[in-house]
Structure formats: structure tokens, C-alpha cells
User: Fold this.
Amino acid sequence: MIQILLWAPLAAGLLACALPRALVPVPPVLTAVIRLGLVIYVVANFNPSLGLQHTVNESWIPALGVRYQLGVDGISIFLVLLTSVLWLASTIWSTVNRPERERTWFLMLGLAETATLGAFLAQDLILFVLFFDLMLIPFYFLFGSWGTEHPGRPEEGEGPIRPQPAVIKMIVYTLVGSLLMLVGAIATGILAANGGPIDFNIQHLAAHPLGSGSQYWIFWFFAAAFLVKMPAFPLHAWMPDAYRVAPLPALALFSGVLSKVGAYGFLRVVLPVFPAATTHFQEVILIIALVSILYGSVMAYTQTSARLILGYSSVAQLGFITLGIFSLRPDGADGAVLQMVNHGLVVAPLMLIAVVLVARAGTDDITKMGGLAIRAPVLAALFLVATMALLAIPGSSNFIGEFYILNGIFQAKIVFAFIAAIGIAMAAYYALRLYQHAMHNRKPDGIESREVGFMDGAVIAALVACIVALALYPGLILHRADHSTAASVAASRQAAPTQVAER
Amino acid sequence: MTFNAPHIDYSGLSPVIALTAGIVVVLMVGLLPRIGRFTVAGLTIAVLAVTAARCIIEWNTNENLVAGALRLDAFGLAATLIACTAAAIVVLLSIREPAAEEAGFGAFYALLLGSVLGMTLIAQAQNLVAFFVALELLSIPLYVLCASARRHESSLESGLKYLIIGSIGSATLLYGFALLYGASGSTDFSGIAHALGPGGKGNDTLVLIGTAMVLTGLAFKTSVAPFHQWTPDVYQGAPTPITAFMAVATKAAAFIALARLFEVALGPIAHDWKPALAALAVASIAIGNIGALGQDSLKRLMGYSGIAQAGYMLAGVVVATETGLKALVFYLAAYVLMNLAVFAVIVARERETSQGDHIEAVAGIGRSRPLLAWPLTIGMLALAGIPGTSGFMGKLFLIEATVDGGYTWLGVVIVVGSMVSLAYYLRVVAAMWMRTDPGAAPAAMPAIAGGSPEADAAHPKGTGRCVLIAGSALVCAAATVAFGVAPSPLIDWASHAASSLATTI
Assistant:
């Protein structure tokens, strides 16, 4: 079943290429609906105490000990759910608003989903790295081929941003990390085997950690890959350009799901496999997370492009998630998992709303927007709910997620908790600013206040409904994830660097 | 006095015999009046097929031939198989090539076969003299083939440059051989290894200088930096099918021969040449990848990319383990397929547009010619080492070999090189998919480096879409993806080849 889940998107994309133009979106939409049903079935029957479930284990490259191993546990299951929901939304969105060259579009969308799901499902380190690298290629095409030139910020002397250089910058940046991770993964396998048969199973590697000296350098190979992907503060330079040129339906997926793969990688790989390095470098990563929160919040408040506000807010939010993970406490990690799903569910509809806004205003500059709410009450309402969730208003699921994270970090490193709390207040500033500038204020000339189209509105409303549902019942995630996150942080909690013998 | 006729193992020599006979037949048939180009090409492919079939039959053999001058083993046969595959595709690519027409199809294909014969021999050679003769047999037809577009100034220039640089390389190599012979007193690989072995002349100055000169000579042939300067020029000037042949087959044969020479004959002094080879690998990766960045000519770009790729492959030799050799053979096979996919598309676009090998020639073909765009895309992504292609698997094995052999830092250099390489490989991909086809409008002729008016007049423009070329590109690209998803058959093949050499050591 998990196999169908993984490969159906790619198969549907390939099938779509062979169909006449009118029927192209049929296989992607159909499989996306079926897959969502499958995932819900898996979630409903998920047994939190069993650990890894629905496993697949086949020999793949025997010469290298690489196996085709898949499985879901309490962490990945919800990210798979998030992926399915967002991809369904984006697929329906692109069915309603057909892009040009739709065959290639749907093929790339399918390939992207397969790669993303593969990264969440893979239980073999090399397989994980493979899917992690592969994710980038469809997004290269999606951003590069369907991207649009952005005027930049002429008032600050910044010229127009063209899609191609922006995308190549993104690819080179992200691959810097992920290819180093490949070396790190191979080194982990070989050093762990110590002359014996090589095995890349993540759980087996976690059971027999490397010596702390090896862990220290390999840790950074992995951390670089994940921090770039998120992006975290010093490694985010690809983000502003790429976010401004990307086609928004694809950017909704990128920002909603792909940034989470980095955080997921920390939980899945780094914490269990490199426990000594994790405790050793805990504070360094915490500082990076903290700086990301503050920097992202400040930048989000000063930007005028709606895309960049959302982009920098993601930097800040991912900072919170990293903070939760590196509190190395189960409650912090629980909150991080919840927050990953929350953020995905919030940022995707906001990106789609941005499409609607841009269509009405002709620009993504919020200082040139205004008054859009006058004749669009439904749009305004949907936007408002998503904004409130973004700023983590009490009662929203984001509030619970951030509460858990802060609770975790408060007990681990109290200073960090105090500073991070500032970030929550700043989120209210930039989120409300985005909403007010776009929807309220006086309406400038030349901007048409129009209600959102029925199908577009339905897609956004469905996503907003998910936000509300999760706000009412966050236990859906917290109960089921609890066991797995505890297992993930357990190794690091126990590993004092001195206990691990140097190899 | 009785005369003992030497024992000749005809079965073991059969690939060589098939090629030699094939050269004669193809040359003669080409001279016959009223012989179409397809007949000669078909005959050439038949010769290559017979050779390949003989290689497959002899695949499990491990024995010395011709009084120990040649070694018949899977390692050497792997080079022959790679060269035959490459040559067969190059024949398909060159069927409508003006250069082949000018040179005469019989001569053109006979020279090609001659070069394949040289590759077969050099990959099997385990005697310095045989090695050198085979190297010349490999090179001299290539000098001529490079210059075969006789009315094309850049082709003549390319041939001459290659001849001069190649001769310097050969001379250096020969000098090195002489020193090695002087120090060890033997021309046989096993004899040299014995002389250099424990308690031998491992630290003899003559040996070290000789090794350095041999390495330099071979670095010229394999276009390893800093002996690479000829590569972009020669690649750009030569007729494109020949460029493709040089880029893949010569590289494969030369690397197999280099590995055999260093692992078998110079194995005892591995600790001396390992750092040198590692330094050359790093230099190649750096210079190749940086040089390719600003190139607008696709053939020059592939030339620099080939230098970088040579650096990656050298890493497999550096570690001097069976894992390293396996990674090398695997990478060579994968490299041949992905490179040929790229070159086939370059040839096709040269015929279809007036842009030559300029990057503009492929602009917008994602929309207008998807069947050419996909192979080129896959080829470029594979060269960059993207998952899902055999290029990724090749890098995976190379990195595994470097980490396993204690050269983790070299693995890091490989991935850093790959990252830089993305910038130019993706530029080509971007040109294909993210731009519109300028050829739709009657485009003004841009200045192409190396283009000459006569040559353009000679080129029959827009001779139609060649099914054979697109077909070869698609087959190579499909194989690249197939070996990226299911690499096991190719791995088994490569590890058999690598282990067959290990029995010699």
C-alpha cells in the first residue's frame, strides 16, 4: 500500500503525458484523491506504540548494502498526510487554472510528490539522501519554466529578478548541502560497518552510533543540508530570489512541505544517528534557530512583497521548529512535529491567497494594494483565519504547537525560551501588517475588488477548514507522534559525549 | 634443430582478429563503385557487433596471450565492449556527416575501427612495448579523423593540434617507459612489479622519474589537468561524431590501460604515485568545472566537462582497491551512455539549425523537439550526478570507494565539483526548457567561434530530422535512467571486470 502511495503520483504524471489535452489533469487529480483516502486510512489505523509500520524491505543495490526500505512512524505519517493534502489542493488548483504546457507541469508535480513522499518514507539512509536530492529537480523545472520575472525593489536599487539565475542559485545552494550529506551518509555506513557488511538502515545505525570524533564532522554535513533546505539564517540567501520568481501554486508546495523535510531530517536522522554530536552542538544549533526567528521576523516586517513576507515568516517559523527539536525534550519535539504540519497548512493557503491578490492588484507589493475586502467578504474571511493561525493566536493549533515548543525549550535552556518568546510577538506584527495592507485601508485606483472564484475559493476554504479542524483537535497529531518523537530524542538525551567510546 | 611454432590462441585473439579483418573489408568495400553510405555503415556496425560478441564469449577467460604481451581478462574486455558500443553509435551519428563524405566512408569507418583496435589492444597490454604500440594505433587514426572535414579550417587546426600535443604526450610516455625499463630491466608488467617489489628498486630515482613521465604522458591522453589544454580546442574543431568518440571511447580505453599499468606494474610503489594521482584528480575537477562555466559552445563545454569527469574517474584509480576499480568501470560505462546521449543531440541540432554547436542551437527545443530535449536533459542531469540516473550511482560508488580507501577528502572534492558543475549543466537545461526557440524566426547568423564560411556552405542545412540520431539519443538516455534505477546488472558486470584484474595483482 505504501508503495502505491509513493509511486502513484509519478505514474499519474507519466500517464497524463500520454493523454489528449482535455483529459490531462484527470489521472493526477484522481490519484491524489485516492491517495488522500489511503493516507487517512493509514492514519486512522495507526498504532502509536508500534513504532515503524507498513514497512517494505527489498534488496536494491546489494554491492553497497543499500536496501529499498520504507515505513511510516508517528513523525512521518503526519508529514505524509500534509503532503497529500497540499498536493491535492495544488493539483486541483492547477486543474482549475491550467498552466501552459500542462503535461510537463503535471509530470513535474507528480515527480516532486513522489520524491517528497520518498524522503518521508525512506528508512535507508542512502535512499533518503537520494529522494532528498531528487526533490530539487522537479522544482527546478517548475520554478524555472513557469516562473515569472519579478521587478525586484527598484527603490533600493535592486534590478529585476529573472527566474533562471534565481533558480540556478537555489539549486546550487541546496545541493551544496545535500551532496555533502551524501558523503556523510556513505561515511556513516562505512565507519559503522567497521569492515563488516555495510548497512544503511537508519534504525540499525542509531543502535550502534559512531565514535564521537566521526559524529562531529558528519553531523555538520547533515546539518548543512537541512539548514539550507529550511532555510535557516546564514544559509537562506537563495530564498528571496527564488521565492519572488516562483509560480505561486508550486511555491505553496515548496514552502509548505519541502522546508519541513529539513526539520524532519533532524528528527529522523541527526538526533538518533549522531546523538553525541547533537548534544555537543546543541547550543550552536539553538543559536542559529534563535537568530533565524529574530532575523526572519524583522525581515518579514520590513518587506513589501507578499511573497517575501511569507518567505521570511517561514524562516522564523522553521526557527521555532528547530528550537523545539533541539530542546532535545519530547514535548519540544512533539510541538515541532505539530508545528510542521501547522505551518504547512497555513502557508499553503496564504500562498494561494497571494495568487488571488496578485491577480487583482497586478503586483505582489502590499503597499500598492488595499481595500480588497470591500467586495470580497469570503476571501477576507479565509485570509483572516489563515493570518490568525500564522500569528498563533490562542485557540489555534499553531498556538498549541508553539506552546509545546517553548515549554520544551524552557525546561532545557531557559534563556533561549525568553528570547524566542519575542518572536511570537513579532509574528503578530508582520501577519497583521500583511492582512491590513492588502485587505483594508483605502483602495488605490486601478485595483479591482472582486470575490474569489468559486473553485479557487473552494480549494482555499478546504485548506482553511483543515486549519480549523486541527485547532479543535490537535490531539490527532500529538497523541500519535508522542511515542516516535520520544524515541527520536531519547538517544541524544542519554548521550553525554564522554559515554561514547572513541572509535 | 627443431623449430617450435609459437602457440597462438586464436580464440583469445578473436576480438583483435575480427577488428583487423573488419578494417580491411570496410576499407575495400568503401572503394567499390556505387556503394551507398548505409552499406558501409552497416558493415562497420556488423564488425563491431562480431567483436562485441567475441568479447562476451571470452568474458570469463583469464589468460596471457602472445607470450604475455597481452592479458585477456574481463577488465580489458570491458574497455573493448565500451569502445564497440561507442563506435557503433558514432557510426550512426556520422552517416550524414559531411566529414565522412569528404574522407570517403570506407576510409572514415576503417580509421574508426583502427582506433577501436588500438583501444582493444591497449586495454589488454601488459608489456611496455605492446602498450606503446597500441597507444599509437589508437591515436594516429584519431589525428586523421579530427582533420577529416578537410574544407573546414577548424577541423584541420584541431587535427594538427591534436597531432602535436599527442606526439608530445607519446614522447613523454616513451621516455618514461625507457627509464622504467632501465631501472627494472623488464618490459613486462609482472617483471617490473617484481623488480620494484619488496627489497627491490622501489625508491630508485629512475623509477620515480619514469613513473612521473608515464603519468604525464597518459594524463595528456586522458585529458587530465594540467595537461588538458588541447581538449576544448580539439573537441570543438573536430567533426562532432569524432568528438563524441574521443570523449568517451578514448577516455574509457586510456583509463582502463592506466589502471592496469599502475595497479599491476607499479602497484608496489603505490604509496609514491597515489598522492600525485590524487593531486591531478583535484586539479582536473577544479579546472574542468571552472573552465566550463562560461562556455557558449556545447562542444567546448563538453570538453571541459570531460576534464572534470576525468578527475572523478581518477579518484577510482587513486584508492587502488578493487572497490575503486569497480567504481571506475561502472562510471566509465555510465559516462559513455550519458555522454553519447548529449553528443547525439548536439549532432542532430547541428544538422537542423545554422547555429552549429552554440548553446543557442538547443534553445527552446523543450517545446519544439521534445524527443531531443529529453535525452539531452537526462544526459546533463546524469553528468551532474542527479539521483535517478546512472551518474548518481557512479558518483555513489566513487565516493564509497574514496571513503573506503581512506581518501574521504577526495570524496568531498568530488561532490564540491559536482555542485559547481550544476551551474553549467543546468544552464543548458534552462536554455532548452525555459526559453523559446529562436529558430522559429529566420535567425541572423551569430558569430560562432571556429565556424568558417566555406564550411557552412558545405553543410547541407536542414537536411531533415534524422531518425537514427534521435533514436540513439533516446536509447542512451533510457539506458542512463534504467541503470540509475536498477544498477545491479551493471554493477555485477563492473565488479566482475574489477575482480578479474585483481587476480593479476
